[in-house]
Amino acid sequence: MESLFKRKLFDLKLKNNYRKLSDVKGIDFSSNDYLGLANHPRIKEAIVKALQKGLSIGSSGSRLLTGNIKEFQILEEFAASYFSAESCLFFSSGFIANYALFTTLPQRHDVILYDEFAHASIREGIRASLAKSIKFKHNDLISLKTAIEKAASLSAKTIWISIESVYSMDGDIADINDILRLIKNYPNTYLVVDEAHSTGIFGINGKGFTYNLDYENLITLHTCGKALGVSGALVCASQDIIEYLINKARPFIYTTAESPIIAVAVQESLLILQEEVWRKEKLLELISYVHKNYSVNLNAKTQIIPIILDDELTATNAAVALQDKGFDVRAIRPPTVAVSRLRISLNTNRTKEEVDDLFENVNLILRDLK
Ligand SMILES: Cc1ncc(COP(=O)(O)O)c(C=O)c1O
Questions:
Q1: Does position 346 have pLDDT exceeding 80, yes or no?
Q2: Residues at CB less than 6 angstroms from ligand 1
Q3: Per residue in 277-304, pLDDT tens?
Q4: Looking at residue 297, what is its pLDDT?
Q5: CATH assignment of 55-274, given 3.40.640.10, 3.30.930.10, 1.20.140.10, 2.40.50.140?
Q6: What are the boundaries of each domain within the chain?
Q7: How much is the pTM?
């Protein structure tokens, strides 16, 4: 008899929604290693040195038990001062951190307001949260204001607003200053900013758009697997919020702490960010070059460039054709996004010649497909 999951897989294939793991090859216009740190020799050396000095590979337990290895605390203290936050807590991934934030901090009589383009990790956290939630239109201040007023009319004890400073699939930027001006009128409102795609690249010294912002109820998330080239995530917030997460966040408590090797690697990566400023500058120059020379994503000037396409098939065919030409470009399709697209990402290792070559091929391939 045909198994249930064989049938489900067949359905996915029929709907052109079937995914499979594939090899990574071609010129990288797809990864989130925006600053080219994932292979940095200094990070490798820092790990080797720490291991030679006796650092263990496994953490051996939860952070609340034997897993609280000093490298995590050193990193958290360093990161708090780096991002000018009162306190900081390391999580094993950005997904887990978002899930922990939205399931731990807002509770039954609270309301979460979230941008309609919120990342899956935020949505999963909201789905599992006891708080009510209201979606607002993408990057739309008026829609956010309407949502705040609706939350107030529901007698929300506290209101939690979730935004991303750079949106992962559209590459556009939230206007955090406008949002702050709006929400300062509403008491008991918290702002959670996911800086996954801006950490290392934007804001003063690449410290993100939230660096030095004057707002007491601000929580920021800096993922470490993108521009920082490692993995994990740093949540920055007030001392009270961090202590509360340590006490109550189940995805932080009921899991073996990450390998301390990762803490050593992230710390070295933050040091490199400070010292090798040319990486960020080279990327910013490449971003300007692309946005000046190609009519792409005029809404935003970031390293993430979506090329919106009519349908899923065109997106997958275009990606395959580009891969055949030697470019690592992927199609992003529903349900990840509402509208299919190629998601091109720039990184420090790319040259203007490679970018020209890519866009020439994109134009030719899309012309042929249409
Ligand atoms: C906006 C955003 N937040 C969180 C995450 C999850 O981070 P991580 O990959 O570290 O789990 C991602 C990953 O793509 C993301 O784009």
A1: yes
A2: 93-95, 98, 119, 121, 164, 168, 194, 196, 223, 225, 233
A3: 999 999 999 999 999 998 776 667 899 9
A4: 65
A5: 3.40.640.10
A6: 20-36+277-369, 55-274
A7: 0.96
CA-nearest residue, atom 9 of ligand 1:
94
pLDDT at 295: 77
Q: Is the fold of 20-36+277-369 the same as that of 55-274?
A: no
pLDDT in the model for residue 296: 72
Burial 74-109 (b: 16+ CB within 10 A, else e): ebbebbbebbebebbbbbbbbbbbbbbbbbbbbeee
pLDDT digit string, tens, across residues 196-205: 999 999 999 8
Atom of ligand 1 nearest to the CA of 164: 1
Domain 20-36+277-369: CATH class, spelled out: alpha beta
pLDDT in tens, 140-159: 999 999 999 999 999 999 99
* 1 pLDDT higher than 70: no
Best residue for ligand 1 mutational test, from 209, 223, 266, 330 (most atoms within 8 Å of Cβ) = 223
Region 320-330: what's the mean pLDDT?
Answer: 97
